[in-house]
Amino acid sequence: MKKYLLILFTVGLFTGCDKYDDGELWDNINNLEARLTALEKQCKEMNTNIESMKVLVDVLQSNDYVTNVTVVSENGVEIGYKIDFHVHPSITIYHGEKGEDGKDGQTPYVGENGNWWIGEDDTRVKAAGEDGQAGETPKIGSNGNWWIGSSDTGIKAQGENGKDGEAGKDGVTPVIGVKQNVDGVYYWTQKVGDSESTWILDSEGKKIKTTGEKGDSGQTPYIGSNGNWWIGTSDTGVNARGEDGQNGITPVIGSNGNWWIGSQDTGVKAQGENGNDGITPQLKIENDNWMLSVDNGQTWQNLGKAKGDKGDSGDSFFKSVVNGEKDLTLELEDGTVIKLPKQQVFSITLDKTRFSDVLPSTSYEVNYTIAGEESQRSNVEIIAPADWKAVVQRTNDRSGKIVVTTPSFVTDSKVLVLVSDENGGNTLMKTVTFLKGKISVEKTSYTVESGGEVIDVKVETSIDYEVSVATGDQSWITCETYPLDKGRFTLTIQPNRDPVFRYATVELVNNDGFVLEKISITQKSAVVKEIHVETAGTLETLVTTEELNGYENVKITGRLNTFDYDYLKLAGNLKEVDLSDLDMNTIPASAFSGSSLQTVLLPKKLVVIPDRAFYQSKITSITIPETVIEIGEYAFYRCDQTSGNLVIPGNVESIGAYAFYGCRFDGELTLSSLKLKEIKEYTFCSNGKFTGRLVLPLNVEKIGGYAFGSCSGFSGLTLNENLLSIGEYAFNGCSGFEGNLVIPDKVQTIGRRAFYGCTGWKGNLIVGKSVTTLNSGSFTRYYKSGGIDEGSLFFAKVYFKGMVPPSSALEAFGLKSFWTGGNLEYIRLSYVAVPIGCKDAYMRAFSNYIDVIEEIEF
Predict the structure, then answer these.
(1) Of the candidates 471, 503, 523, which is a domain's last residue?
(2) Same domain? 463 vs 537
(3) Residue 162, Ramachandran bin (φ over 0: left; ψ between -120 and 50: alpha; else beta)
(4) 3-state secondary structure of 566
(5) Domain that holds residue 493
């Protein structure tokens, strides 16, 4: 039926096309594009909420508490909160904007009689006019109703409280939550559309835990009411205070990780065993559907169309967020309530947690304050290393000071401060660090703009330290240290493309793992100006260059032409342009030639990157859409501010000469395409310092001259089995290659100086059986001795698989003799292996410039 109605609607469009106004139709299309953009943003926020819920559950199951709550806003509207914890990392939750339930709006459609219908009502207005006249097109009036011509149908185009019309009702909005089961464990739940909340199950049909299996918790010694040390529910029988004025015995952690008291191993672990990580659900949008994965992205489950009835605002996982004075209360969509205290019911605060430049036989004071219920009594005890002395001097039940006296010989050490309630059932621990040396950083907190920044951190120190960046933050924070200058290091913060803030803590640690300093990094979310260009060539009528220069990022939709791209170049301060949703599959030649833009997100539908598209531009990274099949000549020529990885997608069939000449990548080059037949001349020449192994695609038959010339940094080279020829200077100066070099059996010719100066190889060279032609310098290196400037590369052994020696063998390896200082010197190959029966032929070809030659069976 829907197909039939669509056909009628199409007929209606073409009947009376002389006067048809398609403005409303294009508005609908543009609204759909905006909706997809909003869904992508919603998906990112939903995944952030999922990660945050995992932390929330872990906070619930530990003794942690909220230290700060900050409102997250977008365009002046509150959209969520950033929550800081005492121990756990900060999280961001998005609560969204949800209207009250209202009536759905209704969308007009063409009925079987050719009239416009809204719901069950026939408006009796023809969708296609008669006698060549244009039919009336429904439009939304100022009162929010559908109007057809001059008639108000009285039917809402949008439901009450912002809900979309019927077109959106087919979609679903997945809501991920957590719920505590009868076993006391929190598991992941899902709610799709209006259905009831259900458990998320793994491939074996089992519920999925939010935080995984935790290992056994370590237990901390405390002093019982009888004055003895207790661990858990066990009385060790050892007096903590000693008798008759003698010092008690202090527990210490032994080499086996257990608590020891004196010479007694209590058998109790000081730290519990590590547990297994939990599985975090992931959401994505693919082909307009919500997809859910519960195995780290290996498989995906289709949840339904991503066109929920809430419109662009989407559903939040959090039904309500109440930021109270004493706690933060979160109610999830399924009714689960999570209440997080803003201060522990029972806590201790120390005025100092670290001492530097510690001297021997010296006393240091730490003031403490205990918070909790007024009627609650507490005990404060100290665990100090052997030969250290620690005394608690109470002012009252809530405060006092700790005096620590160092021994005559000082090492970097920690003192543990234990506070327990009067029943001994709740014990907290704080650490005070004592360092022989001194360390401090100039600034401990940075806020970075969305475009990224290089932070130069100044350190005053007499201590060796390392900079630790959490694994999850290494994708956007990199550190560079200077071995000869401990007084500084740099942190490079990559641009933030997401519409949410992100946070990290960078730690300075010593060799024993002590955290010496912490530096907090907050990066702002991307602020994007969106511009829709309905008619190509009109960009300059929509925004001035001054306005463009006022934004870091601009997203352009619609259609552009050469004049629009030229206009963009005039905005010299603009850093990023997002063209990913342009309704075009091409961009003009030289579109960004000489542009000062640092980031350009190319159209998702792009088929060709034309000649000189980014010629000598200032872009810093290159991402090529999967749809691209052709990259033109000089496309990225001398884009010398690029860095990171370069990926050539799988559909690319042709890359023009000089396409990436003179770029400055410092990551891996990935050639994914199985359709690429040729690497043309100078394609990747002089391309900085690529890393990793270079693997040629299976179907490449020809490597052109200078194709990879001067690309130092590769760690290895794999040539594909269908390769036929290697051009002159193809790998000239690629000094990073290691291991073996295998020339495939189909290769016939190797050009002049093809591998000249590749000094990294120390393994073997295997020359394929079809190689008939070598050229001067194919396998030579620079070798200055006695006026001779060439010599053989550093291969340990050379294997020739061909029955006939290739031509120009001597010249290819730089083999020769020369006089120096009155002595005759030789450049020779130390070992050569050839097919059985070919030894004499190879000896003649190499004029005896071989130390050892053997016949072997290949």
Answers:
(1) 523
(2) no
(3) left
(4) helix
(5) 439-523
Torsion angles phi and psi, residue 56, rounded to 5: -60, -45
pLDDT digits (tens, 9 = 90+) for 613-669: 999 999 998 999 999 999 999 999 999 999 889 999 999 999 999 999 999 998 899
Do 730 and 750 belong together in one domain? no
Q: Which residues contact 421 (CB under 8 A, 6 or more apart)?
A: 346, 372, 376, 377, 378, 379, 427
Query: Per the domain annotation, does 364 fall within a domain?
Result: no
CB 605 within 8 A of CB 584: yes
Residue 383 φ then ψ, to 5°? -115, 115
- Over residues 234-287, the pLDDT tens digits come to 667 666 555 444 445 556 555 555 666 665 667 666 554 444 445 677 777 776
Helix (H) or strand (E) holding 845: helix 839-845
In the listed set 738, 762, 778, which residue is the last one of a domain according to the structure? Answer: 738
| Side chain identity at residue 82, one-letter code | K
Question: Which is it for the CA torsion 604, 605, 608, 613, positive or negative?
Answer: negative
What's the Cα-to-Cα distance from 272 to each of 63, 134, 420, rounded to whole Å? 16, 78, 20
Residue 346: closest CA among 134, 65, 130: 65
């291991």: which residue's tokens? 739
Asked if residue 634 and residue 710 are part of one domain, the reply reads yes
* Alpha helices (H) along 473-544: 539-542
Residues 481 and 505 in one domain: yes
Question: Residue 558 and residue 203: Cα distance in Å, rounded?
Answer: 43
- Residue 786 has which token pair? 């006695």
Joined together, the tokens standing for residue 358 give 């510690």
- The domain that holds 685 is classified in CATH as 3.80.10.10
Residue 307 CA to residue 664 CA, distance in Å, equals: 43
Per the domain annotation, does 363 fall within a domain?
A: no
Quote the Cα angle for 739-741-745, to 5°.
150
720 and 749 assigned to the same domain: no
d(C-alpha 169, C-alpha 310), whole Å: 9
| Closest alpha carbon to 613 in 592, 582, 637 | 592
Are 572 and 498 in a shared domain? no
**Is there a single domain that holds both residue 518 and residue 575?**
no
77: burial class by Cβ within 10 Å (0-12, 13-18, 19+)? exposed
Residues 375-428: tens digit of each pLDDT: 567 788 898 888 899 999 999 888 999 999 999 998 888 898 988 776 555 677
- In a domain? residue 122: no
The pair phi, psi for residue 398, each rounded to 5°, is: -110, -10
Q: What is the pTM (predicted TM-score) of this model?
A: 0.47
Strand partners, 80: 72, 94
Amino acid symbol at 847 = S
- 533 and 626 share one domain: no
Token pair 């109270």 is found at: 324
| Residue 105 DSSP label | B
| Rounded Cα gap, residues 748 and 745, in angstroms | 8
CB 200 within 8 A of CB 192: no
Number of domains in the chain: 4
709 contacts 687 by C-beta, under 8 angstroms: no
Distance (Å, whole) CA 853 – CA 842: 9
If 0-12 CB within 10 Å is exposed, 13-18 middle and 19+ buried, where does residue 341 land?
Answer: middle
Q: Cα-atom radius of gyration of the chain, to the nearest Å?
A: 36
Strands 630-631 and 608-609: parallel
Beta-carbon count within 10 A of 667 CB: 18
Beta strands 115-118; 109-110: pairing state? antiparallel
Q: How far apart are CA 71 and CA 398, in angstroms?
A: 33
In this prediction, residue 292 has a pLDDT band, given cuts at 50, 70 and 90, of: confident
The answer to whether residue 811 sits within a structural domain is yes
Which residues are CB-contacts of 484 (< 8 A; sequence separation ≥ 6)? none
| DSSP structure string for 143-193 | TSEEEETTEEEEEESS-GGG--BGGGTT---EEEEEEE-TTS-EEEEEEET
